[in-house]
Amino acid sequence: xxxxxxxPAPRPPEGTPPRAELARQARAVLADAVRIAHWAAGTPxxxxxxxxxxxxxxxxxxxxxxxxAQVRAGWDRARLAGLVELHGDTARPGWRLRAxxxxxxxxxxxxxxxxxxxxxxxxxxxxxxxxxxxxxxxAVPQVLSLLQLSAGPxxxxxxxxxxxxxxxxxxxxxxxxxxxPGRTPSAAPAETAADRTSATAGPAPRADLNALLLDWAxxxxxxxxxxxxxxxxxxxxxxxxxxxxVKLEQICVAAQSPAGNIEQSAADMLLGCAxxxxxxxxxxxxxxxxxxxxxxxxxELLAVARGEDALLRGLAFEALRVVGAPAEPEVRAVLAxxxxxxxxxxxxxEYEGNDPDDAQDVLSREEATxxxxxxxxxxxxxxxxxxxxxxxxSAVQGxxxxxxxEVRxxxxxxxxxxxxxxxxxxxxxxxxxxxxxxxFQVHTGGV
Length: 447
Prior knowledge:
This protein has 23 helices and 5 strands.
């Protein structure tokens, strides 16, 4: 047994409105998105996919008395906030839409998903290299932290100075230096277009580029209701202040954890959470995710899930449950991978609002058997022998002979090791003998 030091539940900064008021503000920000989501949910047939088809755009604008631009913007927000879910060419109401009027937590999670996607809501200026835009997105958390810590308006020059410092740090971390005497192009690290412009034209173009990117970022954050813009200054809204505080708290929790998970790779982070109970583990996942962009975090978790460690595969999908809506396209994309398909099906079933106890119904018999073997492999590698024996009770087959027949046919790469470990652990000699025989048959290719 290990002990875990607990810390009292943190309190939001003084002056933060109650959650009910924050949820009311979030509902106001997403009012048009909710109206459009309800309209799409009540409009059967094709035409409500992304992007919104032209005829559906016209119908929605007429029905809701909004301009086409308002409909298009609201539709994008509805998708990013998880109010609608896309299934092929059809849109279906998301679970957050069903809970919107009664569940403040669902509302706040939906708004935070939109807040995290601010760079998708407000298109980046044309003509700027994608790498420079990505640098600005990566630097924005520091800008938001300054706004949150200042607890009031911050001048644009101060924010621009911080953005420039952070972009310079990113360049230094990647060792991006201009070519000097005696250096050949093959030996020089890769440069971005922005760096080449800066090297040839002096510091002014880089400063101008940073100013343009800062304006874009502030406008994008204002568009999702995270801040307000005044003449030469910016101020976090109550919603934005609360969201930044939550993310900073998540980082602080992880930094104080025994394993220091915030700085670990996905695999090491998941191993560090393996012996935690579900609540503390989810806190660790949230903190680890808060320190990374959503796209990179999801990609890293799925890369771990494709590995050989079945325990990490299951934990990776637990962490993806914390990610929620932003992970849905990537999770749906792995349905074609046999080793991930059962996990992805369960994730999607729960994401779409099915009760976790009933989610197993979405698996075919073969998929359920594959998952049983994979889970048994995780127990055999990391658990106790008693857990492996009890794992027999979770098999869908109902009898050991039927289970062994289907386990032999499912083709899981760890089948032999699982059956050998189960035979060694089971106290019933006759059953253990049958399991060993099945392991031998799988190993030799017999029947």
